[in-house]
Each structure stands twice: as structure tokens, then as C-alpha cells.
Amino acid sequence: MSEFKPRNFIQNIIDEDLEQGKVERIYTRFPPEPNGYLHIGHAKSICLNFGLAAEYGGLCNLRYDDTNPSKEEQEYVESIEEDVKWLGFDWEDRKFYASDYFEKMYECAEELIKAGKAYVCDLSAEEIRAYRGTLTEPGKESPYRNRSIEESLDLFRRMRAGEFPDGSRTLRAKIDMASPN
User: Per-domain residue ranges for the chain?
Assistant: First the structure.
């Protein structure tokens, strides 16, 4: 009699994608922000992402989400790496920093604006939360959602230039506000 191995929904999705040829190899990533020490939730994510990659013969990248330099320290980078190794995992030569791709991310953001799929929003964080939907009620569209492409591009470029206080404007995707996700 063969031993039964319970599967979870993530493994089921991976199995289906591999069987259907959607992907040839599994790639995962652990993306900590180096602004503090890791906690149990991070350990769970490390074990899940590195563990799934190992189980399926894939690769897991260590990719620092270092997009807030005023709160990040080298001390935390070193601590994160020690913790990942302590948990028994190795990223080998796959250590990346999101900041290395900032120009590409900026270009992609501009393309989304030009395609009418993103806009600059002036709502505060509290207002954005209030506009969000719940599982039972749809969200409301931001009053800035239908800004012209030209105005959003201008504001986005000025955001990058530092013309506005941090957090006073955000780039938002034009998602379906009625979606329960």
C-alpha cells in the first residue's frame, strides 16, 4: 500500500500548471523589506516559498523589497540572510533588490497610465480604506480614477521629482471595484 501524501491547494495549482505545460519550472521568491527583524509570519513564508521550490526542483529568489530607504538598514539585510540560512535554505546566486529594477518599474507604471490602466489618486490612506469594498459590499471608485491620461502622467512625473509630500498621491491600478477580492 502506498503512503498517502495530503496535498494543499497551492500544490494542486502547481501540479495542474506543470501537467498542462503552463510552466516548465517553479520559481518562487521571498521578498522581505529590510526595515526590521523577521517574525514567525516571515518564517512561514520562507518555508513555503523555499520549500515548494525545493519540492518541485525549482528555484527561490531572495528579493529585497528595498523601496523605502529611510527605514532600511544593512543590519536587517544581514539578519534576514542569517535567518533564512538558519531555517535551512539557500538562495545561492539569486539575491536581488527591487531598487535595482526601479527604472523598469517606473517605465511599466508610465505604460499602464498611457494605456488607461492606472491613474494618480489624491485620496489619503484612510480614504482609500473607506472606499475599499468588503466581501459583501463592492468598493467605490476614487473621484480621481477618471483623470485624463495626460494629467496622471504629469502628476506621476512630478511625484517622482519629489514635488509632493510623501504619501499625498499614489499610483493606483484601475481595478474592478465590485470584485470581492
Answer: 9-100, 116-173
